[in-house]
Design brief:
five-stranded mixed β-sheet; 232 residues; alpha+beta
């Protein structure tokens, strides 16, 4: 199973590098406490350490979920994508603010429910947002959008980063990211996060893809509409 999750040795190195990032940041933040004079400043650093650690734990949990996908333990049900996106934005707003970024929402879907697994969909949106955080600014906010698209509902996250290389774009366009990839032209982008999103989208029978803009990229997932009622 390890070979299925991590693929070739190069992919394992990418995974290790991405998991090392949050740990290194947490260490730097912890060391900066020695130079912080104000109590509120120390509390803010503590909150950032917690948020950074949570991000690393989420990646580990997502990798564990990938290993369990074959067991079909993730039930599909009617899910309200607005609620899922609201939860992700609420969780990440402090991390975006700390990095001087802004995350906005734009919901225009008339049909309210998709067929999905709530936990897996949340991870997809979360990973899209983490990617977007590296590209933007206070005047170029990342955008979480929901739209009707035929018999499906599209959830996409827009950023303002460098264009995605053609090789990676074709791999995603052709239907799947088979392993974590290093996107050289987007040094802050999470190849591991996109791999996780692709695996979960495929499990939920959703379409995972991207749109290349002149000034950025939108990563999206299209999910089938559900006509059933949902209590969540």
């Amino acid at each position: 199973m390890e070979s299925e999750v991590f693929g070739a040795n190069s992919s394992a190195i990418i995974v290790a590098h991405e998991l090392k990032g949050p740990l290194s940041l947490s260490r730097q933040l912890a060391l900066s406490l020695d130079f912080e004079d104000s109590l509120e400043g120390a509390r803010e650093i503590g909150r950032q350490i917690a948020a950074t650690s949570e991000r690393a734990l989420r990646q580990v949990e997502d990798l564990t979920r990938i290993a369990r996908l074959e067991d079909a333990m993730f039930e599909m049900e009617p899910v309200n994508p607005r609620i899922v996106c609201d939860e992700v934005v609420a969780e990440l707003w402090r991390l975006f603010r700390f990095n001087r970024r802004e995350l906005l929402i734009d919901y225009r879907n008339k049909r309210k429910l998709v067929v999905a697994n709530r936990q897996l969909l949340r991870s997809v949106v979360y990973n899209f947002c983490l990617n977007a955080m590296n590209y933007g600014g206070e005047e170029l906010p990342s955008l979480v959008a929901i739209r009707d698209r035929g018999d499906k509902i599209r959830i996409d996250v827009r950023d303002y980063g460098p264009t995605v290389p053609t090789k990676v774009w074709r791999e995603i366009k052709n239907g799947f990211v088979k392993k974590p990839v290093d996107i050289a032209m987007r040094p802050g982008s999470s190849g591991l996060g996109l791999y996780i999103a692709a695996k979960f989208a495929n499990y939920m029978r959703g379409d995972f893809g991207l749109i290349r803009h002149r000034d950025g990229t939108s990563f999206y997932i299209d999910l089938p509409v559900s006509g059933q009622l949902s209590l969540v």
